[in-house]
Design brief:
- The chain has about 325 residues and is α/β, with parallel strands linked by helices.
- It folds into 2 domains: about 220 residues, Alpha-Beta Complex (Spore Coat Polysaccharide Biosynthesis Protein SpsA, Chain A); about 80 residues, no CATH class.
- About 40% of the residues lie in helices and about 20% in strands.
- The strands form 2 sheets. Strands 1, 2, 3, 4, 5, 6, 7, 10, 11 and 12 form a 10-stranded mixed beta sheet that branches. Strands 8-9 form a two-stranded antiparallel ribbon.
- β2, α2 and β3 form a beta-alpha-beta unit.
- α7 runs parallel beside α11.
- The protein is globular.
Length: about 325
């Protein structure tokens, strides 16, 4: 079922929790589609993590980032080593069906200008985790079907807003095309919603994101509505901050002005909800404000790229990935 000529690099970001590492590595090695390169970025200081990766996957390239640049920085570090034509981004808590990569690869032929393909992710309890992304009317990107018991309505391949970066197969050509200052992931996101940002940038760049239901995996997601308070406060702050980074970069008046009343209403409910249920996370507002000048510059660059594409002006800004 695999395509021998396809050159794929798997990029995995690990922190200090390696409880699911064995199942992840086993599922990567049993893929019917050969993965040519494995790159692990270790975002932490626990020396046992490196030993565990070597034991499970001795052929892997191992990068160590004790400064912990987050998922975004970890993927960017992996990209500097990636030699494949396709880049497979992975969370450490994913267990893949043996045909996951092959089915994603086949979907690249289903549409023109495919930038990324992702599959049907399920939770360990059998509920749907993600069937790609959808955009709510108030400009909130969410996982389709999250928490649903029946996944039969997600049984056909389709173009979606985006796909979850926990197990997503990207075209490296597309990534190079949308890179910002030679970086694929926006490191200001650090963690959470960075995959939403990259999918929205792919959409803006003329690429499509495809959901492929035949590609299936189990995702032991650390964040869900029912266990929000168990997520470390630092991550909850980043998640709130990143909502506004997305809005700053991707909200466009001509396209989204009709959504403005719903957006404002949602923001009011969100603010008062945080006041009542999670006031410590509200520091995320201040974090977003501090990044306002950078996001406005990135917004301007995105709009300029879109303008150049409409006018048929070649974008010369994309460069090979280099260290930050």
């Amino acid at each position: 079922m695999g395509t021998p000529s396809a050159n794929i690099t798997a990029c995995v970001v690990l922190h200090d929790d390696i409880s699911a590492l064995g199942s992840l590595c086993a599922s990567l090695e049993r893929q019917s589609q050969v993965i040519c390169q494995f790159v692990f970025c270790l975002n932490g200081t626990d020396p046992t993590v490196r030993d565990a990766v070597i034991q499970e996957m001795p052929q892997a390239t191992i990068l160590e980032r004790p400064d912990n640049p987050g998922f975004s920085g970890g993927i960017n570090a992996c990209m500097e080593e990636a030699t494949g034509d396709y880049v497979f981004t992975l969370n450490a808590d994913v267990d893949l069906d043996e045909a996951y990569v092959a089915n994603c690869l086949a979907a690249f032929d289903s549409e023109e200008n495919v930038g990324v393909v992702g599959g049907l992710l399920m939770r360990p309890d059998g509920l749907v985790d993600s069937a790609g992304f959808a955009m709510q009317p108030w400009m909130r990107v969410v996982d389709r079907g999250s928490g649903a018991q029946d996944h039969s309505r997600f049984s056909r391949r389709e173009v979606v807003v985006g796909v979850c970066g926990a197990a997503a197969l990207f075209s490296k050509v597309a990534l190079l095309d949308i890179a910002e200052n030679s970086r694929v992931m926006d490191e200001d996101f650090w963690m959470y919603k960075e995959d939403q940002d990259i999918c929205l940038r792919l959409n803006a760049g003329g690429f499509v994101c495809v959901f492929e239901p035949k590609a299936q995996a189990v995702h032991q997601r650390g964040w869900a509505a029912e266990n929000r308070r168990e997520v470390p406060i630092q991550l909850r702050r980043h998640s709130l901050k990143n909502r506004y980074l997305l809005l700053l970069k991707h909200w466009r008046f001509p396209n989204h002005v009709r959504m403005l009343p719903l957006l404002l209403l949602f923001e009011v409910f969100l603010f008062f909800g945080l006041c009542l249920r999670d006031p410590r996370a509200m520091t995320g507002y201040a974090m977003a404000v501090r990044l306002l000048p950078k996001m406005l510059r990135k917004r301007k660059e995105l709009k300029m790229r879109a303008r150049n594409r409409r006018l048929g002006i070649k974008d010369e800004s994309s460069k090979p990935f280099v260290a930050a």
